[in-house]
Amino acid sequence: MTDPQVPYAPAQAAGQDGAARPRVGLGEIAREWGRIGCIGFGGPPAHIALLRGLCVEQRGWLAADEFEDGIAATNLLPGPASTQLAIFCAWRLRRAPGAIVGGLCFIVPGLLLIIGLSALFLSEHAPLWVRGAAAGAGAAVAAVALNAAATLLPASRRRAHRPGQRRRWAGYLGLGAAAAILIGPYLVLVLVACGGAEALWRRRAAPGAQVSLWPLAAAAAAPSGVLGALAWTAFKVGALSYGGGFVIIPLMQADAVHRYHFLTAGQFTAAVALGQITPGPVVQTVAVVGYGAAGALGALLAAAVAFSPSFLLVLFGAGRFDRLRGSQTVQAFLDGAGPATIGAIGGSAFTLGLALAEPWQFAVLAAAGLWLLVLRRGVVSALLGAGALGVVAALVGLALS
Questions:
Q1: For residue 119, which of 92, 157, 225, 277 sits 20 to 30 Å off, Cα-Cα?
Q2: Sorting pLDDT into bands at 50, 70 and 90, what band is 217?
Q3: Are the C-beta atoms of 32 and 54 separated by less than 8 Å?
Q4: Cβ-Cβ contacts under 8 Å for 93 (sequence gap 6 or more)
Q5: Please, which residues have CB within 8 angstroms of residue 387's CB and are 6 or more apart in sequence?
Q6: Half-sphere exposure of residue 292, counting CA atoms within 13 Å on the CB side?
Q7: Is the predicted pLDDT of residue 213 greater than 60, yes or no?
Q8: What residue spans define the domains of the chain?
């Protein structure tokens, strides 16, 4: 990593091997990061592959170990890891200006698309085929959540290798699932508490370690009013979500549907589907919630609040990522919050399934589960196929939820 005490030279920057790297213009960053934002279908794995192909393999802007260090560091941060990686790679090239330009160009194409789709799908007078597609794709979302949890489980379990840790790991997993089902609006408190509990447990074995539980205070109070409530929901997604990706579902669902009534249950499942099939970060789902709460202004507010922590964490913390990666407290916190997050994702599949109202939707859910969990096929194709089945169901006169 670059030493944070060494001034940044605008003409050139040094890589980890000490060799000078060529100056990259902001226009080129805007063009390349915007391109990835337009074609980045498939979530974090696709984004990481595109960024690696651009920055390491094609242009040689970053050394391979620099890029891998960026992946490792951003995975330790709360919020959308692939978005933070995109911001970090641009920061390595042009520091703050590059991070801002690259991050915005990565986010904005998908954001504009999802706002446009929100206007179509959430319209009171949406065409029949649109309502059918929403009901069909929404029916598959529970299977997508279950698949996400199943995918994350093996790696998380392998991390639980210390004596007695497997039992705590299972406990955190169960607590996360129960919290997603029973106390959705306060799920973030359970995630933070599980992380804090593991960090405190490790401290018993290493009394000299210091543990900070600052997120507990941040999660304690929620504002009132439509925009305040929307901002709070978006803040939890961007600043207090550990594990990224699908953890945004249990964090948003209780607030958006049951607590503040921004969306109906059916609209929320359609929102999650839109976040999965559009390019760019999955966290853009929060813009659909914002649109349901306060139109286009709400969508922009929700996106701004959700993505601001990612920019701030990179802009003010990237120079200290080495220390973050080496922190035993951070590692311990994630060893507690991580399994709780996976449990919450799995628990959200149950609550998403409860949102279904029509028999044909359960058939679509079963088909999506077979496609994802048995045949091991892709999420985007599952949602598109489910949407197509929903269109057929609407056109033949089946009831829509």
A1: 225
A2: very low
A3: yes
A4: 13, 21, 24, 29, 61, 62, 102
A5: 133, 134, 136, 137, 273
A6: 27
A7: no
A8: 16-108, 109-395
